Amino acid sequence: MPAENASQNVPQQPGAPAAEEIRTGAQIPRQREVLLEVDHVTLRFGGVVALDDVSFNLYTGEILGLIGPNGAGKTTCFNVMTGVYRPTSGEVRFAGQRVSGRKPHQINRMGIARTFQNIRLFPEMTALENVLVGADARHKTSVVGALFRLYRVRPKPEELAVVDPKAPAVVQAWQRVRRTCGKIFGISRHTLEERAGERKALELLKFVGLAGRANELARNLSYGEQRRLEIARALATEPKLLCLDEPAAGFNPAEKEELLQLIRKIRDLGYTVLLIEHDMRLVMNVTDRIVVLEFGKKIAEGTPAEVRENPKVIAAYLGVSADAA
User: DSSP readout, 194-230?
Assistant: First the structure.
């Protein structure tokens, strides 16, 4: 996993709780600012009720776990939040704006990013290129502007071409020409966005522990590395909320511990995290609150300690009635 100072390369989200406050045990932000509202959401597929009047809030800066037995509706809830499905009734609001009815790319631009239960990378692209796809979501240049290098802007000194004193004379001459032209005519916005995106992508790869694999094809990475790469790509979209759908699936105990530490570092940087996970040890150790679903209904909500002792939760996982539990 990345070194401790790697997190310094990734910008902290504005208005988020300080990392020091989190480390000292503040589990939920003091102001409890609501970031996401799932408001009486019901989703039906014909006669099948996938979500049944589900409501819960997610607060800025916290890690919320969404758990339940197989088929409880956890991923379906993610899909409603991210625009894959439109709820039959109820709505989802993010930062006070309605999410329901928007397209997935519009929701991503609002600040919600996700990973998937089944890894969805571009296997024939490198790790760096996969993260660049995420960074491109924030670029403002149109296709036409990118093709013809329109919208030239005056660059900052550090954005101008660098003259390498160790390069051959011909190369140095060309670098000076590029630097002079940049000062006089400016540099296309698309070029600057590409450079900034590459810097961000490299920083994120370092953050998730893949700095040395940047030029490796995604299909050649190990399963655990592909999981971390997907997290890096999601972070590249600059989200306010990161939704992780079973990120520890298929991990061994050591990899799960590394993932737990990575999730904590992500939250320490100011991101809010919504986590679907079957590994109860990981969920109990990393989340601030937990929402429990069963057959599409919310049956419990509270701190890990409260959920652990809830008879309905025990019954749902053991397959017995609440009375028997």
Answer: HHHHHHHHHHHHHHTT-GGGTTSBGGGS-HHHHHHHH
Place of tokens 């939704």: 243
Task: Mark which of 210, 236, 262 sits at the end of a domain.
Answer: 236
Q: What tokens does 238 get?
A: 């600059």
| 161-173 pLDDT, tens digit each | 777 888 888 888 8
φ/ψ region of 96 (left if φ > 0, alpha if ψ in -120 to 50, else beta) reads left
Query: What are the b/e assignments for 3-18, b being 16+ CB within 10 Å?
Result: eeebbeebeebeebbe
Find the domain containing 150 and state its range. 124-236
CA 202 to chain centre: 16
Q: How far apart are CA 183 and CA 137, in angstroms?
A: 28
Same-domain check for residues 159 and 107: no
pTM: 0.78
> Domain boundary at 236, 252, 276, which?
236
Residue 298 inside a domain? The answer is yes
Q: Supply angle C-alpha 143, 95, 70, rounded to 5.
A: 90
**Residue 216 shares a structural domain with residue 146:** yes
Where does 27-154 show beta strands of DSSP type E?
Answer: 34-45, 48-59, 63-67, 89-94, 97-98, 112-114, 152-153
> In this structure, how many other beta carbons lie within 10 angstroms of the beta carbon of residue 318?
11
Long-range pairs for 159-168: beta carbons < 8 A, 24 or more residues apart: 159/187, 159/192, 159/195, 160/187
- 5: domain CATH number? 3.40.50.300
Cα–Cα nearest to 43, from 100, 115, 111, 93: 100
User: Which distant-in-sequence residues (6+ apart) come within 8 Å of 33 by Cβ?
Assistant: 15, 59, 60
Residue 186 CA to residue 178 CA, distance in Å, equals 10
Residue 198's contacts (CB-CB under 8 Å, 6 or more residues apart) are 128, 132, 135
- Condensed to tens digits (0 to 9), the pLDDT of residues 84-132 reads 999 999 999 999 999 988 999 999 999 999 999 889 999 999 999 999 9
